From TrEMBL:
It is found in: Golgi apparatus membrane. Its main location: Golgi. It catalyses: 3-O-{beta-D-GlcA-(1->[3)-alpha-D-Xyl-(1->3)-beta-D-GlcA-(1->](n)-4)-beta-D-Xyl-(1->4)-Rib-ol-P-Rib-ol-P-3-beta-D-GalNAc-(1->3)-beta-D-GlcNAc-(1->4)-O-6-P-alpha-D-Man}-L-Thr-[protein] + UDP-alpha-D-xylose = 3-O-{(1->[3)-alpha-D-Xyl-(1->3)-beta-D-GlcA-(1->](n+1)-4)-beta-D-Xyl-(1->4)-Rib-ol-P-Rib-ol-P-3-beta-D-GalNAc-(1->3)-beta-D-GlcNAc-(1->4)-O-6-P-alpha-D-Man}-L-Thr-[protein] + UDP + H(+); 3-O-[beta-D-GlcA-(1->3)-beta-D-Xyl-(1->4)-Rib-ol-P-Rib-ol-P-3-beta-D-GalNAc-(1->3)-beta-D-GlcNAc-(1->4)-(O-6-P-alpha-D-Man)]-Thr-[protein] + UDP-alpha-D-xylose = 3-O-[alpha-D-Xyl-(1->3)-beta-D-GlcA-(1->4)-beta-D-Xyl-(1->4)-Rib-ol-P-Rib-ol-P-3-beta-D-GalNAc-(1->3)-beta-D-GlcNAc-(1->4)-(O-6-P-alpha-D-Man)]-Thr-[protein] + UDP + H(+); 3-O-{(1->[3)-alpha-D-Xyl-(1->3)-beta-D-GlcA-(1->](n)-4)-beta-D-Xyl-(1->4)-Rib-ol-P-Rib-ol-P-3-beta-D-GalNAc-(1->3)-beta-D-GlcNAc-(1->4)-O-6-P-alpha-D-Man}-L-Thr-[protein] + UDP-alpha-D-glucuronate = 3-O-{beta-D-GlcA-(1->[3)-alpha-D-Xyl-(1->3)-beta-D-GlcA-(1->](n)-4)-beta-D-Xyl-(1->4)-Rib-ol-P-Rib-ol-P-3-beta-D-GalNAc-(1->3)-beta-D-GlcNAc-(1->4)-O-6-P-alpha-D-Man}-L-Thr-[protein] + UDP + H(+). The keyword Transmembrane applies. One of its GO terms (molecular function) is glucuronosyltransferase activity. This is LARG1 glucuronyltransferase. Residues 27-46 have a biased composition (Basic and acidic residues). GO terms for cellular component: Golgi membrane. Keywords: Glycoprotein, Glycosyltransferase, Golgi apparatus, Membrane, Multifunctional enzyme, Signal-anchor, Transferase, Transmembrane, Transmembrane helix. It comes from the Eukaryota. It is a single-pass type II membrane protein. InterPro entries: Glyco_trans_8, Nucleotide-diphossugar_trans, Xyl/GlcA_transferase.
Amino acid sequence: SLADGKPVSLSPLESQPHSPRYTASSQRERESLEVRMREVEEENRVLRKQLSLAQSRSPSHHRGNHSKTYSMEEGTGDSESLRAGIVAGNSSECGQQPAVEKCETIHVAIVCAGYNASRDVVTLVKSVLFHRRNPLHFHLIADAIAKQILATLFQTWMVPAVRIDFYDADELKSEVSWIPNKHYSGIYGLMKLVLTKTLPSNLERVIVLDTDITFATDIAELWAVFHKFKGQQVLGLVENQSDWYLGNLWKNHRPWPALGRGYNTGVILLLLDKLRKMKWEQMWRLTAERELMSMLSTSLADQDIFNAVIKQNPFLVYQLPCFWNVQLSDHTRSEQCYRDVSDLKVIHWNSPKKLRVKNKHVEFFRNLYLTFLEYDGNLLRRELFGCPSEADVNSENLQKQLSELDEDDLCYEFRRERFTVHRTHLYFLHYEYEPASDNTDVTLVAQLSMDRLQMLEAICKHWEGPISLALYLSDAEAQQFLRYAQGSEVLMSRHNVGYHIVYKEGQFYPVNLLRNVAMKHISTPYMFLSDIDFLPMYGLYEYLRKSVIQLDLANTKKALIVPAFETLRYRLSFPKSKAELLSMLDMGTLFTFRYHVWTKGHAPTNFAKWRTATTPYRVEWEADFEPYVVVRKDCPEYDRRFVGFGWNKVAHIMELDAQEYEFTVLPNAYMIHMPHAPSFDITKFRSNKQYRICLKTLKEEFQQDMSRHYGFAALKYLTAENNS
């Protein structure tokens, strides 16, 4: 099409001058087209020459197939062109793009403290892992709580080509505690200032992220921006998208000094090596001391101090395009950062309101965030093919154990479950409890899945002491649980309940793994090994603490038995005393637990004796005995080979007996099982013959292991099994 917009016909007739259609007008159009074609050919020749020169200068030109080049959007590097139009910065620099090596490690630093921030970090990491194609090295500046939670999480997550290092945030407090800070992030909101000192001296560059960040693209694209830094540029930042630093939000609003609108520190690119040479530590301290003389405190934590330094030294900053930090707080210009979904790179929920912030596209952003919040983290265990990863001892041991299993074995899936590593998030909600100083404290231990959530409030009303719960949930169910708990006055009023999420994987309910997780994370010397379907009698917590002293549990190997009963009624007037319970037994409102279907499980408790007992009495182990007991926290773990339904508690009680624990029944304690629909696992047990065959095989193997481990004393278990 020519400049005048008329289409040009190139039919064969045009090459025939004597054709009737060949007019003077057609001749002029043809000549005009030939001139334009020569011009285009000349432009193409010049472009090819420029591209050739650019490639010969580029260090990535010789990397062949080992490098991946990312098309990077142009950052302005100064404020003026950004003010002329933020979105104009979204253009691409083709032909001059720096490369990020395929296997180059990208370093990310995050400050994280407490229970809530640990949950936020997981969502951020999921969004990064989802898009990434490079090895990642996370540097986590964490307090003791976050370190315990995240160390366990990443250890059990086992994501290939991801390395985690922790730095003690509590040790850094003295570096910034002299700065008064009004921001809700507290003292931890100032710790990004000391990263040049905190991170390894040989680390040259790092991307620093707030915990309330969500990535919508490969983080390697952001890493590549480091190549654009020129001269003394050492900080990569996005302009602040609110009017905060303009000082016009309200009357007498007096913000810290900043260059124009200032910069937001939710996403920072730090050139650490250059910052150290510039004496960054001295630079920010002197600036902070000077400004605090008049400002008295920071309002936006580290961001105020970063901006004050940049105001004095504008040459330090490389201004990133604003889609690298789309700030979703109220009254921001974030909508100018994108025209289309494809423009979005990083979303920053930098309002205390978080997902409830005002923005006309907030529903889209919220859905993007919720996608990662509820995304199955197990799917992110992707190998980075072609990139050598560091040897992971846990992963290698797991592969070795799995390789020794026979995949043709009909019980292969049962055996495999024993070695499955389940991603585990400890203390999913805030936990705060100091054990009693008299060393008699007891924690109730139980495990559950989503279909038993309704039992939590009732148990909390019956047991005022500490509780340790392992919940077997998917990522989406974990968020449903969080919303349920946060909406419950009963659960939110209790800070002594530890909720530990074990994420779903495989086809079996790993009941004994769950029990072990809950047992391992108690802070008291004793534990009551219960099940989620039981309500303890009112006052049981205090009664057990007295029994611990009375029966000298600290110095003897005892397992104190709490007799178990059950009701078939969904609505039960819970007995407030032993006398009331005995009356309900006589009336048929209550029964001894599993009296109708599995008498052997609790028969050795000797309920006839318990009716009239006023003092604790000893009972002997018998085959299939599975009482609920109070033991010291150093008791053996449950055997993980038993999954789903069958023999999971029986095996544990057998091991306690093998270790010469003395079983003692408490005369004034009781617990009542509440009715519920049959679990999926008991249904499988009843309907699947192979399930029952495999359970029998696992029982026999467990008994053989007991004989090998405990010798002659363990022969009685084989004999008892044969006689039962």
